[in-house]
Amino acid sequence: MRRLLGLAVLLGLACVGCGVQPSGVIPGDPAPTGPVNGVTLYFVRNGEVVPTLRATDTALTPTEAMNLLLTGGVDDQERAVGLSTDLPPGAGPATLTNDATGTTLTIAVDPGPLRPAAKNQLVCTAQSALAQEFATTSVGLFIVGPDERIGPMSRCPVIG
Amino acid sequence: MIQRVLAPIRGLRVRLLLGFAGLCIITATLVAGGMYVYARRVILQQAQDSAVFALTKQIRSVYPLHTLPPNQQSLAVIQDGLVTKDSSVRVEYGNQSVGNRDAASLISADLRAEISKGHVAWQRVDWSGAPGLVVGTELMVKGANGDVRSSGVDVFAFYDLGAEAQSIAQLAYLAWGIGAVVLVMAMLLAIAVARSVLGPVRELRTAAGRLGAGELSTRVPVRGSDELAEVAQTFNNTAQALEGHVVELRRMEADARRFVADVSHELRTPLAAMIAVVDVLDEQAAQLPELTGEAVRLVSQGTHNLTRLVNDLIEVTRFDSGTAALALDEIDLAVAIMATLRARGWSGEVRTDLPGGVLARVDPRRLDVIVANLVGNALRHGAPPVTVRLRTEPGWLIVEVGDHGPGLSDEVLPKVFNRFYKADTARTRSEGSGLGLAISWENARLHRGSLVAANQPGGGALFTLRLPLIEVTE
User: Fold this and answer.
1) Which of A70, A61, A112 is nearest to A90 (CA)?
2) Chain B residues closer than 8 Å to A157 by CB
3) Chain B nearest CA to A62, separation (Å)
4) Which of A33, B67, B277, B305 keeps 20 to 30 A from B450, CA to CA?
5) Would you call B351 helix, strand, or coil by DSSP?
6) Which of residues 113-152 of B touch A (CB under 8 A)?
7) How many angstroms separate the CA of residue A59 from the nearest CA in chain B?
8) How many CB pairs under 8 A join A and B?
9) Contact assignment for A53 to B110 by CB distance below 8 Å
10) Does the beta-carbon distance from A25 to B64 stay under 8 Å?
11) Do the Cβ atoms of B439 and B419 come closer than 8 Å?
């Protein structure tokens, strides 16, 4: 009797196990990674700085990238996904220079009263922009306003 | 219950069939099942791997990304770059999506969780009844300074596994088909094996039955040199030995009987002469001197005993040789039994219960021998009163002879009808020949009746003669 039962179970398994059954999730290689073509600007969402990618026709200089951030603000697409800028209007134009004494960002307003998120926007965008010209971002950044100079700033919190 | 259900499958043929079938099913299931499972895994793995490979290769062409977060148009550009002829693609960013809207339900939360860890991941799903494959991945971007970050764009590609399922189903059909063919072949093989085993076994059984029924010349054919052939050979040897022994025993027994018969016949003629002489001497014994007269009486009695013994022996040899025959006659049983008692002079010593009018067809001489032997035996060895009862049962007439002596001991009871058996060894020289009860028993059997010895509840032996009652029709 037990033998018959075993045989039946075996046959049942053979029948049930046929065909292509749904499976669990099978993990594979790391996700594909590719380059970006454009300028990375940092805006704010829920108090955190978030990178965005803007398509550009030609490669921008660091100063041009900073001016895009300071004067342009978020575009419609970026606003649609909840991005905004903490930088006050009229903070531009800016210049970003890099020499032996350090990296200096000059803007049209005093940097001291800026909110922390706004300072991070400046630091992260500058760090990202400079990386295209210089292999290293180890040099400290100084932000200079009409009456005030602060720095060196700590590194961008969202870039590894 | 189970035993009773399983009883019909105890036959060798059924057991062999079941054994072969079970072996075949297990083997076919394991072999075909194992192959099937392995082949299915290989087929599916190959299909999945090639789908994943194709998708990741295709994804390289959508880089570099230009705009993040993407607008609907750039998502559409990505989706357009990934669609192939055998896959549909869905691209998502946050709550925006482009592509196959219905397929969104196929993407499980587990898959989303897995790809959010930065892996390509895939899952086989039930795509409205048909097997399908969902491959998902996030698009990662490498920043200008070498940092790799998520772009937030998820790509899902859907593949139909119908072709693979069909190949696998064909594998299954093939496995079932081969299994069925193998099963049929195993059954045929089992039947052939069962026949090759059961044939000789049946022959042996028939032969053993015939041997038991007395056909000692029975032999079985010995085929081949397997165990069954050895059994057959052993059977033949045994039968041959048995036949030899039985023939020898029969010859010896026949010789012994013929010898007894010959001796008895040879003794009869001189005994007849001696009887004539001792009868004459007996008449004159009274006038002879006392010592001589006593001697003559002893010789006379011994000669009569010897004559009775020889006559009994001749009677026994007739039974043994099968020449004893019944001479049936219609008689009144009560009258016949009374005549027997009267002729022996026992009428006064025996209590009788003999209802008249019981008519039957018996051999009067043999009935006389039986009753005389039983009553004589009771008078000699038992104690009075000796009783003789006649009664009938449907189909049987019964004569019971009882006494009130000590009865028969357990040791004596089974041997009481043996020839020359004497219960009382101290009285070996008794008047009886030692053949009386044996002859009575043979006579009862000749009538197709029986003679049984037993003890009465109140003490004393009881001999019961049962003869089939063939009543006389008026």
Assistant:
1) A70
2) none
3) 12
4) B305
5) strand
6) 113-115, 117-126, 131, 137-149
7) 12
8) 158
9) no
10) no
11) no
Supply A113's token pair. Answer: 């009263």
Residue B201: which residues within 8 A CB-CB, separation 6 or more?
A: B12, B228
Q: Which of residues 14-53 of B touch A (CB under 8 A)?
A: 22, 25-26, 29, 33, 36-37, 40, 44, 48, 52
Q: What are the structure tokens assigned to A5, written together?
A: 């039962």
pTM to 2 decimal places: 0.55
CA distance A88 to chain B (A): 23
Q: How far is B199 from chain A (nearest CA, A)?
A: 29
List the single residue in B36, B63, B124 with the smallest CB-CB distance to A35. Answer: B63
N-to-C CA span, chain A? 68
Q: Name the CA dihedral angle for B102, B103, B108, B114, rounded to a multiple of 10 degrees.
A: -140
Among A21, A29, A40, select the one facing B120 at the smallest CB separation. A29
CA distance B37 to A19: 10
User: Mind listing the pLDDT tens digit of every residue in chain B (474 residues)?
Assistant: 555 555 556 677 888 888 888 888 888 888 888 888 899 899 999 999 999 998 988 888 888 877 777 878 888 888 888 888 888 889 988 878 888 777 788 889 999 999 988 889 999 998 888 889 999 999 888 866 667 778 888 999 999 888 888 988 888 888 888 888 988 998 999 889 888 888 888 888 999 999 889 888 888 888 888 888 898 999 999 999 999 999 999 999 889 888 888 888 888 888 889 888 888 888 887 787 888 888 888 888 888 888 888 888 888 888 887 788 888 888 888 889 999 888 888 888 888 888 888 888 888 889 898 999 888 888 888 777 888 989 888 888 899 998 888 888 888 888 888 887 776 655 444 556 778 888 899 888 888 888 988 888 878 888 999 988 865 554
- Across B405-428, b (16+ Cβ under 10 Å) vs e yields bebbeeebeeebbeeeebeeeeee
Strands ordered across the beta sheet of B350-353: B350-353, B386-393, B396-402, B461-468, B450-455
Q: A109: Cβ–Cβ under 8 A, 6 or more apart, which residues? A: A88, A90, A91, A145, A146
